Amino acid sequence: MKRDMAYYTHCKNRLARSPLFTGLSDELMDDMLEMFRRDSWRRGVQLDPSLFQQRLFLLVDGRVEVTRINPQTGRSITLFLLGPGDGIDMITLLNDRPHEMTPVALDDVSLISVPLGDARAWLEKHPEFNRNFLPYLGEQMRKLEDLATDLALHDTMTRLARLILRHVKPCNSGPTTGERSLHLINDLHDESLARMVGSVRQVVNRHLQHWRKQGILHKRHFQTVVTELESLQDYADESPTHGDTEKTGSQ
């Protein structure tokens, strides 16, 4: 990309606020961005996994859901929900093995991309980037660990509560005192949330309706906010005070 482009400045500002690029010098950012080209995907598009064996993609605007699909049953589960500043399938920087994953654009998405070979050469040239890159990969591994733990050890209501709590914006109150807004999942449909917790839409909808009736969640203008954070935390901790009847059929 050319440095005098308005989009170049936009990309640089967006990426600089993300964990993968925060704190990097202007010189390092400029050296990296010069390699990239601009891309865009329309909402709802599903990308061929082989594309990510050829190019590295970084999100600038919008969200991408990375799923794994069983071709026999059609069932799917969400592995990652990515936003601005995230890289898609960045493990390909470390090896050439193909991955069974399907990225889906949840919004009209703006990205930048570079051939994988060029990205690997840049990493070798700038080992100082590892100060951000390795913790970022570690955080992605931790998310997969959390997903595996939730699926193996917790029922659906607990998994859903834990998912929502992971996306609560810290120290961010809504227009009503005590409300907490959500990051990335604030406007997702029940079906998308179900894929993220390994369940089905009907079960997730039932739990969400239950929490709205209790005043734990509130939906305003298609945006969900948490109004009773401590109560939701009780569900995430599988507190026995809520009784078994509320979790019947949640598996």
TrEMBL record:
<feature type="domain" description="Cyclic nucleotide-binding">
    <location>
        <begin position="56"/>
        <end position="114"/>
    </location>
</feature>
<dbReference type="GO" id="GO:0005829">
    <property type="term" value="C:cytosol"/>
</dbReference>
<keyword id="KW-0238">DNA-binding</keyword>
<dbReference type="Pfam" id="PF00027">
    <property type="entry name" value="cNMP_binding"/>
</dbReference>
<keyword id="KW-0805">Transcription regulation</keyword>
<dbReference type="InterPro" id="IPR012318">
    <property type="entry name" value="HTH_CRP"/>
</dbReference>
<dbReference type="InterPro" id="IPR036388">
    <property type="entry name" value="WH-like_DNA-bd_sf"/>
</dbReference>
<dbReference type="InterPro" id="IPR014710">
    <property type="entry name" value="RmlC-like_jellyroll"/>
</dbReference>
<dbReference type="InterPro" id="IPR050397">
    <property type="entry name" value="Env_Response_Regulators"/>
</dbReference>
<dbReference type="GO" id="GO:0003677">
    <property type="term" value="F:DNA binding"/>
</dbReference>
<dbReference type="InterPro" id="IPR036390">
    <property type="entry name" value="WH_DNA-bd_sf"/>
</dbReference>
<dbReference type="Pfam" id="PF13545">
    <property type="entry name" value="HTH_Crp_2"/>
</dbReference>
<protein>
    <submittedName>
        <fullName>Transcriptional regulator</fullName>
    </submittedName>
</protein>
<dbReference type="GO" id="GO:0003700">
    <property type="term" value="F:DNA-binding transcription factor activity"/>
</dbReference>
<keyword id="KW-0804">Transcription</keyword>
<dbReference type="InterPro" id="IPR000595">
    <property type="entry name" value="cNMP-bd_dom"/>
</dbReference>
<dbReference type="InterPro" id="IPR018490">
    <property type="entry name" value="cNMP-bd_dom_sf"/>
</dbReference>
